[in-house]
Amino acid sequence: DVKVTQSSRYLVKRTGEKVFLECVQDMDHENMFWYRQDPGLGLRLIYFSYDVKMKEKGDIPEGYSVSREKKERFSLILESASTNQTSMYLCASSSISGRAADTQYFGPGTRLTVL
Amino acid sequence: SQQGEEDPQALSIQEGENATMNCSYKTSINNLQWYRQNSGRGLVHLILIRSNEREKHSGRLRVTLDTSKKSSSLLITASRAADTASYFCATDAGDDKIIFGKGTRLHILP
User: Fold this and answer.
1) Contact A101 B102 (CB under 8 A)
2) In the beta sheet, which residues pair with residue A75?
3) Which residues of B lie inside 8 Å of A (Cβ-Cβ)?
4) Rounded CA gap, A47 and B56, in Å?
5) I need a labelling partner for B12 at 20 to 30 A (CA). Which of A16, A54, B57, B76 fits?
6) Has residue B2 got a pLDDT over 80?
7) Looking at the predicted structure, is the pLDDT value of residue B41 above 90?
8) Element (H, E) at B19
9) Do A99 and B48 touch (CB under 8 A)?
10) How far apart are CA B24 and CA B65, in angstroms?
11) pLDDT at residue number A98
12) Residue A69 has what pLDDT?
């Protein structure tokens, strides 16, 4: 069975802290994605990666960075957390399809609160 | 970079009734997907329909695609309490990315 796991379901951090959100997939997928989901705004793409050590900015990369040292693991880093980064963070993975986007498999999400 | 938009934003129906949600999009697509999200959880893929397909079924789900109108619909027949969730359409955006709509919140009343 396909599985994407995220390191925490709930996380509370203080303003200015460095925050790491981890995502692991066991499907040998090339693509991995980080989204944030906010009420009224839907899902917005922060960063994605096509392969190890590769990363591409999504629609809202400001204030975030990512790391992909291994194929199965994609980390989202908040260098200095701010209250406006309080959100639900969702990780997803998919295989490379060539022309059209394939199905994305999601983790359970991490609800981050920044105080 | 919003592509798909679901309609209605929220829908409440009695258990056993059919639920229909619509999605409209702006530019041409290769495929369109529907996802479900239970409250506070991750998204689960329901169905993918390609641009050369007009209709697809999966259990109690029926998806249609009209590329001339740039619209899709998701029909859930004989709804159950467990169908209470948010439903999102997603269109491909090139480079293996997809763009999600803001979703329809479906509430099944007992």
Assistant:
1) no
2) A22, A67
3) 1-2, 30-31, 33, 35, 40-45, 48, 50, 88, 90, 92-93, 95-103
4) 31
5) B57
6) no
7) no
8) strand B19-24
9) no
10) 10
11) 64
12) 95
- Tokens matching residue A55: 């990363």
Residue B9, beta-bridge partner list: none
Picking from A46, A106, A113 by the largest number of B CB atoms within 10 A of its own CB, the best residue to mutate is A106
Structure tokens of A68? 């992909």
For residues B17 and B30, give the distance between their C-alpha atoms in angstroms, rounded to a whole number: 32
Residue A20: how many other CB atoms lie within 10 Å? 12
Please state, as a whole number, how many other Cβ atoms lie within 10 Å of the Cβ of residue B84.
16
What DSSP assignment string belongs to chain B?
Answer: ----EEE-SEEEEETTS-EEEEEE-SS--SEEEEEEE-TTS-EEEEEEEETT-SEEEETTEEEEEETTTTEEEEEE-S--GGG-EEEEEEEE-STT-EEE---EEEEEE-
Rg (CA), chain A: 13
Give the C-alpha separation, A77 to A84, whole Å.
Answer: 15
Q: Give the count of beta carbons closer than 10 Å to the beta carbon of residue B109.
A: 11
- Region of poorest pLDDT, from A18-22, A29-33, B4-8, B79-83: B4-8
Give the count of Cβ contacts less than 8 A between chain A and B: 63
Contact assessment for residue B19 and residue B10, using Cβ atoms and an 8 Å cutoff: no
DSSP sequence for A57-96: E-S--TTEEEEEEETTEEEEEESS--GGG-EEEEEEEE--
